[in-house]
Every structure is written in C-alpha cells, then in structure tokens.
Give the backbone structure.
Amino acid sequence: MPRFRVVLVEPLNDGNIGAIARSMKNFGLDELTLVRPCAVGEEATKRAMHGIDILKNAQTVFTDEEALKGVDFVAATSGVDTVNEKKFSRISMSPKEFAEKIKDVDGKIALLFGREDFGLDKEIIKRCDFLITIPANPAYSILNISHAAAILFYELHASGVVKWEARKAGDL
C-alpha cells in the first residue's frame, strides 16, 4: 500500500496551509512538507483545528529536490486539464483514476500542490510521474488549493488507498 507526502510548493496563504492540514487529518494523511512557504501564523493554526499536529510537524524546505527526497513517485496537481499529448508533457487523470492506478504501489508518493495564483511550473510537472486534475466546470475550473486537496484526499480514502483508525472526535 502506498504512503504519501503532501507537498505545498510556495503556498501564499497560511489559511490554506491550515485547511490542508485539517483535511489531511480528516483522511488519514500525516506528512506535510512546505517549499518556500509564506509565514505560517494564526490563520493556519485556526483552520488546522484537530490537524494542528500535522501543521506543527510540517517540514519546511527551500528546494523542490529537498521536498522530494526519499519519494518513489511524484504526482502533480493542476487546474488545467491536459487532453492533447502534443501540447502537454503529461496527460492528466482524475483523482479517482489516480487512486485506482496507484492502489498496488509499494512506496512513497509525493502529492504536489502549487501556488494559489499560478500552480506548479511546467518544469516540475515534466518531472512528475502522474498529473491529476479535478474535473470541474470548464467556465471556471480552478479550485481553491485546500478544496482540491480535500477532494484528492477523499478519493484516495474512498478507493481504499488511504485508511485511518476509527476514533471518536473526543479522542483527538
């Protein structure tokens, strides 16, 4: 069964970092790496809620290479759907398709999310093994980074790729 590292590349909004930490806790993920992040402050702490341990244990690094050290595969996320191999170096898949594809992987997979304003650059996407895009309204297909992360985490859980221990909220 795969293991995951969530990597946020140059996040601009600390509230989104906190919200992602919370979603990670919701869906049984616990390894967060921040690449050249904004200041992580009170808003991140407020939004993390019971995911505060994930936020506090997040690793901060300065290069993409540091963030990917020790992973076996890299999955980039993008709000841009890539359906034509002639125009894009990677053809995207939905979170559900990704979960099915990696179900039997034995190794660590980095899940990369880019900046809120322009996502991941093309060079890092070229170096990735997978490209994930969430199908959305073509008139406005770009999701908030924390919402996109929650959808991906949910699909990984729903497919059985990520499991968590059953606990009551009071046990947290």
